[in-house]
Fold this protein.
Amino acid sequence: MNRSAQVLATKLRTLSSLSAGDLELIDRVIPPASHYEARRDLIREGEVPQYVMLVVQGFACRYKTLRDGKRHLVALLLPGDCGDLHAPLLDHMDHGIATHTACLIAKIPREGVLDMLESPALEKALRRSTLVDEAILREWLLNIGQRRSEERLAHLLCELHHRLRAIGMAGEAGYDLPLTQAELGEIAGLSTVHVNRVVKELRRRELVYLRRGRVEIPDPRRLAWLCGFNANYLHQLAEAGTFS
Amino acid sequence: MNRSAQVLATKLRTLSSLSAGDLELIDRVIPPASHYEARRDLIREGEVPQYVMLVVQGFACRYKTLRDGKRHLVALLLPGDCGDLHAPLLDHMDHGIATHTACLIAKIPREGVLDMLESPALEKALRRSTLVDEAILREWLLNIGQRRSEERLAHLLCELHHRLRAIGMAGEAGYDLPLTQAELGEIAGLSTVHVNRVVKELRRRELVYLRRGRVEIPDPRRLAWLCGFNANYLHQLAEAGTFS
DNA sequence: CGCTCAGTTGAAACTCGTCAAAACACGTGG
DNA sequence: CCACGTGTTTTGACGAGTTTCAACTGAGCG
């Protein structure tokens, strides 16, 4: 099974169980990935999408910008995540997609997506994945709208812990997070300086140790309690994260 | 054509053009609506959805709550809007839906939705509608994350103006908005008091006159310019709002 | 008339943003 | 190996924006 297909399969299995036939189908329709540099636009606002992009390796994001250049990240795309399945339905993009780190991206042609939708299990997994994307958007909205900076960052870190663990990219007490504090600020709607102060405070309280791309969470339960994190909205299968 | 079907048709025609056959199909699968009081839960977080709810009359919303009782509205459902088409795919709701004003709600059974998805034009319209819902979420996230209170409220009022105009519920320079300032605050992530101050300031600058459920916008272009509003993300057809 | 709920106002406290500078990490080329 | 440059993290001081509390006004309704 090629690398791209494997990554997608891993992600989809966190949402629905797949048969051997499904895995073969995935392998057949997912093209090999190509390499992109860090911080590079994959598609810009206003452009017309041709493919569904699948992140195979690295971190990417969806973003929107304001006239004055302020940018807000409206989604984080982890390995296995992809752009909207029905994106081709919309004339033009209302947001951009960019790499964060260096990435491997597979461009799935329209027909490949349609083929996958033929399989009931894959259809279910793919549709669930778009529903989860939407659920995450709602949770982020709540996060920014109602929580204050400390809980806000804590909540974001909890979410990433869960999402990364589901795809085998995080351990019990920590994970690699290749995001600068400025970028965390662009997600959380906080200034870089304030993110830094919050990070410092979380460290002082021994809740999170964040430094140079690495997140350590000594007691995930305590952190989750602090910010009221509840993973329900991620709609992960119970056994997610336990397979190879 | 029954009332519920008519409302849905009006909404869908803002997204894709429908044939006479499509309209008949809609009429056949949409059941009559029933009445709900104002401020009543239609479905709560954690419950399992059985139907797709269609708002026929009145305003409803999706909301999420925090432990401490703070509530945030993550979507506003106007006449013609409905809950997620594939909601039944998810085990339990990660948010609640509630009426705002008194409402007429039609509960579309699963099979009705499937029937509509058979028609290419309806499928396109329905899928586009979920994509637009997601686009609105992203825009709200940007709005709360990056804009300050005045532009934030202005942007929200611009969006509602466009959405209501598309379904024939707003004129060139104003519309009825049955939301309290407290509720606007729950959307914008602002305290009631601050919403009030911003409303006052917008009135002073002759941008928006908001009082007792009525919004008057003497110069929509000027207001849109102030907050950087660009309707692209609503993906409305050009002729939206011009039909009966 | 008196109730209730929405809107309004002021003062004080607090959260967070801005500006500016310094400390630090990392990669590069000398 | 060190020096240098770039980009990220850290710090302090200050001010702007926003929340909170508490009281008051006004409209609608029984």
Notes: Chain B has two domains: 3-131, 147-234. Residues 180-182, 192-193, 196-197, 199-200, 211-212 of chain B lie near DNA strand C (CB under 10 Å from a C1'). Confidence is low (pLDDT under 50) at residues 240-244 of chain B. The radius of gyration of chain B is 18 Å.
